Automatic annotation (TrEMBL):
Presence of the UniProt keyword Hydrolase in the record: yes
Keywords: Hydrolase
Name recorded for this polypeptide: Alpha/beta fold hydrolase
Gene Ontology molecular functions: hydrolase activity
Gene source species: Georgenia deserti
InterPro entries hit by this protein: AB_hydrolase_1, AB_hydrolase_fold
Domain (AB hydrolase-1): residue spans on this chain: 3-217
A Pfam family hit: Abhydrolase_6
SUPFAM superfamilies noted in UniProt: alpha/beta-Hydrolases
Length: 227
C-alpha cells in the first residue's frame, strides 16, 4: 500500500527515514512528505500550502493511508476532509485533530513570524522517557522553526464525509484507554464523530520514529493491511 508520512511540529521529512525503510521491507511504498515551511525554509508558508503539498501526493498515490504525527494529525485530517473518497484511512500518531474553527497549533507562541523548537524541558516526562542523549541530539538536529502562517491558521473542515474515513489512533506516550476516555469526555470532538476508530498501543515516548522506528513501522503496516 502507498503510505504517506507527515512529520509533526518542528520536524523535517528525514525523521521518517528509518520507519519508511522498515515499511518498504514489508512491501509498502512509504513516502515521507516534504512540507512547505518545514522542509524548504519558506517562512511565508501557510497551512494551506502544507495541505496542498500532501494533497498533491494523495493525487499521485493509489488510495493511500495518510499518517500524521503529533500536530500533523490535524493536517492528515484536513486531507481526509478534502479527499474523503481517495484515501484508505488516517493514522494519528501521538496527536489529535483540532475541531473546525480552532487554531491549528497554539501550544507555543510565535516569535518573529515562527515558532521555534522550545527545548527538551517542556517535554520532560513520558514524552521523552525513551530518548537517550544521542537520540535527543539526533532529533534536535532535524528540528526547524515552523512559520506562524502554519501554526496560527484557523482550521476549516467542510465535508462531513470525513467522518466515514477509518481512523486509527496510535498511542505512544499515552494508552488506548487514555484516548478512549478523552473521547468519551468530549475532549476530542473530531475522533468522537468518526464512524470507525481503532487503537494501536506503542508504549513509547512521543517520537517513536526516533526511539522505536521498527515498532512504529510494524504498527503502521498492520493498519495498512487491515485497511
Amino acid at each position: 500500500m502507498d503510505i504517506l508520512l507527515i512529520a509533526g511540529m518542528w520536524l523535517t521529512a528525514p525523521v521518517w527515514q528509518e520507519t519508511a525503510d522498515h515499511l518498504a521491507r514489508q512491501g509498502h511504498r512509504a513516502v515521507p512528505i516534504r512540507l512547505p515551511g518545514q522542509d524548504d525554509g519558506d517562512v511565508a508558508a501557510t497551512l494551506a500550502d502544507q495541505v496542498a503539498a500532501v494533497l498533491g501526493e494523495v493525487d499521485r498515490a493509489a488510495r493511500p493511508l495518510v499518517v500524521g504525527h503529533s500536530a500533523a494529525s490535524g493536517l492528515a485530517w484536513l486531507v481526509a476532509d478534502a479527499r474523503p473518497d481517495a484515501i484508505a484511512g488516517v493514522a494519528m500518531v501521538g496527536g489529535f485533530p483540532p475541531a473546525d474553527g480552532a487554531t491549528y497549533f497554539d501550544a507555543f507562541p510565535a516569535r518573529d513570524g515562527v515558532v521555534p523548537f522550545p527545548g527538551w524541558e517542556r517535554f520532560d516526562g513520558p514524552d521523552t522517557a525513551d530518548l537517550d542523549r544521542a537520540s535527543r541530539t539526533r532529533l534536535e538536529s532535524l528540528t526547524v522553526p515552523v512559520p506562524s502562517g502554519v501554526t496560527d491558521a484557523t482550521v476549516r473542515l467542510r465535508d462531513e464525509r470525513r467522518h466515514r474515513v477509518p481512523v486509527t489512533l496510535v498511542c505512544p506516550e499515552y494508552s488506548p484507554d487514555d484516548a478512549r476516555s478523552w473521547i468519551e469526555a468530549g475532549h476530542l470532538p473530531e475522533p468522537s464523530r468518526a464512524e470507525d476508530v481503532r487503537y494501536a498501543d506503542l508504549a513509547t515516548g512521543h517520537w517513536p520514529m526516533i526511539s522505536a522506528p521498527d515498532r512504529l513501522a510494524v504498527a503502521i503496516a498492520g493498519i495498512a493491511e487491515r485497511r
